[in-house]
Amino acid sequence: MENYSIAFFIGLLGSLHCVGMCGPIAFALPLKKSSKLYQVFGAVIYNFGRIITYALLGFIFGFFGQGIKLASSQQFLSIAIGVILIASVFFPLSWLNKLNPNNKIIQLIGSVKQQLGLLLRSSKPFNLLRIGLLNGFLPCGLVYTALGGAIATGNTQEGVWFMVFFGLGTLPLMFLAVQFANFVSLAFRNKIRKIFPFLLVLIGVLFVLRGLNLNIPYLSPKINVERPFVQDCD
Question: Which pLDDT value is given to residue 113?
Fold first, then answer.
């Protein structure tokens, strides 16, 4: 349960970043001419799509971490992820912006954005779901942070639930973003981007504390390493 609390906390704190970065997609959902009831329905469908994608990514990245079975190894991984998150603030990966446009990853992201542009012209429920699904695949530092947590769970099922709770944490503000498209100004979104590095450091510290095994409920729970039983030959 501690993992899920951390995931929800990451999503809740980071949802300001979500509104700043993914807000334009939420603002552009074709719901302005719909009834209030359908706007609520559309917001739910869109966000449900995002959370489905997060769950899928949680399964994949939880599988990557599944090989790490021992609690001590998971602790080390949690500390390592925390250190990487903190380091990424001081040593940003700006070189990623210089990737060749012909790079397969860049082309894939471009294809996702193109599909989003087409889907944003229709307010059909299935299209709103697809917008949410595709939105979940767009590059996002906050999602990468949560995926680090999914890896640290070392389990596919735990990885799925970690990302689901992360998505639920982002839900309140992202729901409001759909309902009130103009409630976040461009100036405020720019301020959010400036706050994000501090948020990233805070989340990194949480991962480090989690791995230190300090026996602090929810923050750094005690993990007992099970040792194999060896029978005496006497």
Answer: 84
